[in-house]
Amino acid sequence: VPIALPSLRQHWREFAANRGAWLVLARNLIPVVGIYAFGWSVALTVFNYWFDGLVAVAAIIAALIPRALRESRKPRQKPDGPVLALVRGVLTWAFVLGLLGFPYWITLISLHDVLLGPGLLAQIAHSPGLWATFGMIAVMHFRRALAVGYDTMPETDLKQRARWDLYLLLLR
Fold this sequence. Notes:
mainly alpha; 9 helices; globular
């Protein structure tokens, strides 16, 4: 006997009660609103999806770096000074982003004319609204990645959560 699907009303109640669902809906409506309300081009819409995914990967990696640096230190080694720790963290972050962001870099090959065309770059450079939109997207991703608590999760939970979050972004 097949199980009946929940009613539309029940779906709506569960959606309305979940704050995270509203944030996901808002973030996914950005390109829709951009196209219909602000006349975004195809290039700008594709760039939005590309930027959104790459920044999400960058945010997760940034949230993981402090833990990685702390756990990679030898047991009796004294902690680095703040400047050296920052430089080491930024270099590690850039290296790991270069590796894990590889699917996003590969996308640039096939979408080179769309994403790196002069029209798109000029459109972004001369629009404070676009800067604010992409800044908001970046802030939301970094805020979420830091709120997840990768730094304090138990090792087994961290492995599962980080894999899941990164796999979904890379498959996108």
